């Protein structure tokens, strides 16, 4: 087969560097946007943080080299109103933190009579404990790590001995390798002087698998006890903590959720007021000194000396990059406000009081059609973004739900189905929990045509276990 060449015309969509930068900025929540802007200020010498002084006038200077030396307004943006006095001073906020969970454990070790070697090994063991209080690594693997990092030859048996010392520390159950060991360690630090506690310890020791799987009738038969005695034993077990590390909160943990909302929505006197939460987001501008530097390098007749060409080209590239970045920030601001305002108009009844039953069915395409933006743009806007309302901080993505049709032809939100599902499970007989198939029949009887697998999906989204695991005595 002969090889030939031919020309083909085709249309292909490509993204410019500015569009790619805009897409990446659009996805960032407020906290990450602040970090991204500060990183750009560090990387680009012509960018500077704008001081927030209302009396400061920002008048563009006239430059005269190509497009940089002609009169040109550098793009800028404002994300809030400067409504404070010149006498107001920003006061530093000092954050203090107590002892961390591991520091608390190491401090307790100091009260034990341990040799220097044992102390170093025990401290390393504590460093391997997770924030919830569990030791999930194998002791032999930890022994290998100690040999490489600390230079101490040890064995799993020696670490097991030191782990027993850690098991005696507070909070009770710390250093356990599984749930069963954790609960038993907590019971070991209690006075087992009542019948319910003795039964509870026996259940955890000999019948833990049956207990976890909630085979209660089988347990009652094997233990040869009454339902009341078994119920009392379960009550003792429920008083124990499955995650002992969470009981310590003096220094906080890295996993503690801390949400900074991206939007602030106020509702007063029947009117909504929407704004971007940009208090900590710095406002940036192009440093005019570099434009002055270009002007000084250019002669009166517009020529540039050979030795200055490279410097001018470098500064021009940095100014281009800065202008693109500022323009992308402004476009992000406009896109976020436009999208959030459309969501507010669409779900206005819900935002008045936070009643989820008033949520209208809404998908990304509904907002895309109203804003004239692409569906992918709307997806990037609502992803990982939060709005602060008078009834709490809401994840924007949680406001979107599919529409379902009732027997009467009315469209309802999937939130309404979930609410009914939650009510049915809350009111069920815990001795005989409702199965997914029974829940499907109840919903169908109420006029909601829904399949069993959809019931199971909504139940899992609500964090509700299957019927067998909801069973109680």
Walk me through the structure.
The protein has three domains: 201 residues, no CATH class; 147 residues, no CATH class; 68 residues, Arc Repressor Mutant, subunit A, CATH 1.10.10. A hairpin with a 5-residue loop joins strand 7 and strand 8. The chain is α+β, with helices and mostly antiparallel strands. The chain is built from 19 helices and eight strands. About 8% of the residues have low confidence. The radius of gyration is 32 Å and the shape is extended. It starts with 16 loop residues before the first helix and ends in a 12-residue tail after the last helix. The strands form three sheets. Strands 3-2-5-6 form a four-stranded mixed beta sheet, with helices on one face. A two-stranded antiparallel sheet has the order 1-4. The chain has a two-stranded antiparallel ribbon with strand order 7-8.
Short characterization:
This protein has 473 residues and is of the alpha+beta class. It contains 19 helices and eight strands.
Question: Which helices and strands occur, and which strands form pairs?
Answer:
Elements: H1 17-27, H2 30-43, E1 47-49, H3 101-109, H4 116-127, H5 139-149, H6 156-167, H7 179-188, H8 195-206, H9 208-212, H10 216-223, H11 227-238, E2 263-268, E3 271-276, E4 284-286, H12 288-297, H13 306-346, H14 348-353, H15 364-371, H16 375-382, E5 386-389, E6 392-395, E7 403-405, E8 411-413, H17 414-426, H18 436-445, H19 452-461
Parallel strand pairs: 2-5
Antiparallel strand pairs: 1-4, 2-3, 5-6, 7-8
Helix pairs in contact: 1-13, 3-4, 4-6, 5-6, 7-8, 8-11, 13-15, 15-16, 18-19
């Amino acid at each position: 087969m002969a090889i030939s060449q031919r020309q083909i015309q085709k249309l292909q969509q490509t993204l410019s560097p500015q569009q790619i930068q805009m897409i990446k900025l659009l996805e960032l929540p407020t906290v990450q946007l602040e970090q991204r802007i500060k990183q750009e200020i560090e990387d680009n010498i012509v960018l500077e943080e704008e001081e927030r002084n209302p009396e400061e006038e920002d008048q563009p200077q006239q430059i005269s080299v190509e497009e940089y030396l002609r009169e040109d307004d550098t793009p800028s943006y404002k994300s809030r109103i400067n409504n404070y006095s010149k006498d107001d001073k920003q006061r530093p906020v000092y954050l203090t933190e107590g002892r961390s969970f591991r520091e608390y454990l190491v401090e307790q070790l100091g009260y034990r009579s341990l040799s220097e070697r044992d102390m170093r090994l025990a401290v390393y063991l504590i460093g391997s404990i997770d924030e919830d209080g569990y030791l999930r690594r194998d002791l032999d693997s930890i022994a290998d790590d100690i040999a490489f990092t600390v230079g101490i030859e040890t064995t799993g048996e020696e670490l097991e001995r030191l782990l027993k010392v850690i098991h005696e520390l507070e909070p009770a159950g710390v250093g356990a390798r599984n749930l069963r060991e954790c609960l038993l360690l907590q019971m070991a630090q209690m006075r087992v002087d009542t019948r319910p506690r003795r039964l509870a310890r026996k259940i955890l020791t000999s019948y833990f698998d049956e207990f976890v799987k909630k085979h209660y009738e089988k347990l009652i038969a094997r233990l040869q006890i009454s339902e009341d005695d078994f119920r009392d034993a379960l009550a003792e077990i429920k008083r124990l903590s499955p995650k002992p590390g969470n009981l310590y909160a003096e220094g906080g943990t890295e996993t503690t959720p801390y949400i900074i909302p991206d939007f602030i929505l106020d509702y007063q006197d029947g009117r909504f007021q929407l704004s971007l939460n940009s208090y900590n987001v710095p406002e940036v501008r192009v440093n005019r000194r570099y434009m002055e530097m270009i002007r000084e390098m250019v002669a009166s007749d517009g020529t540039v000396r050979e030795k200055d060409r490279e410097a001018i080209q470098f500064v021009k590239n940095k100014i281009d990059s800065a202008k693109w970045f500022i323009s992308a920030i402004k476009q992000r601001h406009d896109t976020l406000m436009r999208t959030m305002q459309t969501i507010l108009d669409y779900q206005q009844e819900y935002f008045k009081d936070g009643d989820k039953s008033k949520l209208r069915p809404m998908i990304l395409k509904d907002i895309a059609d109203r804003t004239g933006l692409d569906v992918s743009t709307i997806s990037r806007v609502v992803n990982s973004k939060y709005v602060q309302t008078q009834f709490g901080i809401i994840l924007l993505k949680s406001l979107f739900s599919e529409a379902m049709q009732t027997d009467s032809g009315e469209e309802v939100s999937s939130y309404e189905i979930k609410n009914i599902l939650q009510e049915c499970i809350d009111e069920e007989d815990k001795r005989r929990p409702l199965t997914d198939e029974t829940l499907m029949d109840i919903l169908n009887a109420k006029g909601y045509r829904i399949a069993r697998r959809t019931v199971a999906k909504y139940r899992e989204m609500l964090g509700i276990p299957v019927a067998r695991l909801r069973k109680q005595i």
